[in-house]
Amino acid sequence: MTTVQTLARVRAAPAAAEPVLRVLQGSKIYGGVHAIEGIDFELYRGEVHALVGENGAGKSTLCKALAGAITLTSGTIELDGRPVAFDGPRDALAAGICMVYQETSLVPSMTAAQNIELGNEKLLTRFRTLNIQAQQLLQSLNFHVDPATPVALLGTAKRQMVEIARAVYNQARIIIFDEPTASLTPEEIVHFFHLVRDLRAQGVAIVYISHALEESLLISDRITVLRDGRLVVTARTSEMTRERLVRHMVGRDIAQTHYARQREAGAHRPARREKVLTVENVTMGMVVKNMSFSVYAGEVVGIAGLIGSGRTEIAKIVYGALKRNLINGGTIKLRGEPIRFRVPKQAINAGICYITEDRKLNGFFETMRIDDNVYIGKLATRAGWRFLLSRLARNTLASYWVERLKIAALQRKARIVELSGGNQQKVVIAKSLVQDPAIVIFDEPTRGVDVATIPEIHAQIRRLADEGKAVVVISSYLPEILAVSDRILVARLGRIVAEFDAATATEDKIMYAAIH
Predict the structure, then answer these.
(1) Which of 123, 178, 242, 426 has the most C-beta neighbours closer than 10 Å?
(2) Domain containing residue 263
(3) pLDDT in the model for residue 102
(4) What is the DSSP pairing of strand 82-84 with strand 97-100?
(5) Listed residue (435, 426, 375, 436) closest to 405, CA to CA
(6) Which tens digits make up the pLDDT trace of 72-110?
(7) Helix or strand holding residue 501 (H, E)
C-alpha cells in the first residue's frame, strides 16, 4: 500500500448537519446551450466532496459560479442557509470561498510572495517582510518555492503550489481545487493530501475536481458525477468504485487502452528497426547532465521520472527549443548524422515534432478554429507554402485529421478556447502530426483529458509506431507509461538511470529508480 493510499484512508464524515453551501436548480446557458442544467449540489463543513465527469460535463462551470467568476442563468446559491449573489470572485473570497484554478490565475510579472498577498496588500509593505511571511507559509505547506522569484520563471508545478498557498493564506472556509495534482510529483501529492487532511480537520469544506479517479476515490468523503451538464449521482465514496464512476461519467463501460489489450492478447514487442535518434552525454546547465539514450523507428519509448528530472528539457533540446551547452554539451544524432538545431523550425524540417505538456500556453491559438490551427501546423513545414492560398486544400487536410482523431466535428467553427480539454488536446496533436514527422515526442499527452479520450490518444500513439515512426512519450502517470511503451527509460537528476522492457516493468520498479 502506498503512502498516498495509507494517508487518504483517513476520512472524516461531514461534521455539520446543515450544508455550508447549497446550489438549488443551478443552470448556466451559453449561446442557447446549457453548460449546466438543473444542478442540485450540497457541501458540508469539514468534508471533501469530489466532483467528477468528462471534459465539458459542467464541473468547472459549476465551480466558477460558486467562486463568483460567472453568474448562473437561473437557480440559487445558498451560503449558511441564506441566498447569495456574487458580483465577482472578490465577493466570493470575502464570503470565504476561494478557487484554485487548473490554469493558474497568477500575475506572471509579480513574485510568488506578491501573488500570495495579492488583494490583501497593506498601504506600506516591506518586500523583506512580505518574503519572510510567504516563506513561512510555503514551508509550512512543504512547498519548495522561492517567494522572491517572479511567477513567470516558475514551472507549472510551482505555480500550482503558489495558487494553493494563496488559498490557504486567505483563510477560506470553502476551497475549490481544480486539478490540483496534475503538475505535482508523487511526493508533492502526498504533501498535498496531508494539507487537505489538515484543512478538513479545521472544518474547511473542499470541492475536489480531478481526472485522476483514483485520487478522488482515495481522498474524498462524497462524490458527485456530472454528465452533459446534468447531475447523474451523488454518493458516499465508500459506495463507489472506479468502474462504477466511469459508467456514470460516460454512460457505458470504457475498455482499457488499445495497446494494453494488445499486450494482454499476447502481442510481441515489435522488432527493432532503424536507430533514428541518438542522444549521447547531452548536458544543459544543472538540469540535464550527461543524458544518453536511443530511439528506434517503429517503437514507443516511455520516459518516466519526477518533475525536475530533465525529461521535458531533453525533449526541448532535441526539438531546438532549448540549447545544450556549447562546450561539452554532448551529441545528438539523427540517423547517424550529428545535429544541433538553433530553432524548432529546423527540427520540423528534419522530421521531428514536439507536442507540449502545456497546451494552453504553447499548444494552440485559442481564438482560432480547428481548421486554422491545423493549417498553421502545415505552414510550418517546407511544403507548407503550397497550402498558403488553397482554402480547399486546408479544409481537406483539416477534415482528415478531425476524422482520424475523432475531434468534435460539430464544433469545427468554434474557437479552440471553447472546446473541451480532450478536444483541445486532439487539436494540438493534429497540428503536429499534419507535419508528417518521423519522430514524435509527446509530453504529458493525456494531462487534463477525460477518461473517454485517453484510450483514443493511446491508440493514436500506437498507430504512429505501427506506421514506422519513432515515438517518445513523457508522462508522470505511470499506468500510462506502462500501457503505451515498448521500452521504458527512467530519468533522475538530469540522467537516464534505468531502462526496462515494458513486459517486465512495474510501477514499483520505475518509482524506485526515479527516487533512488
Answers:
(1) 426
(2) 255-351+472-516
(3) 65
(4) unpaired
(5) 426
(6) 999 999 998 899 988 888 888 888 898 887 666 788 888
(7) strand 495-501
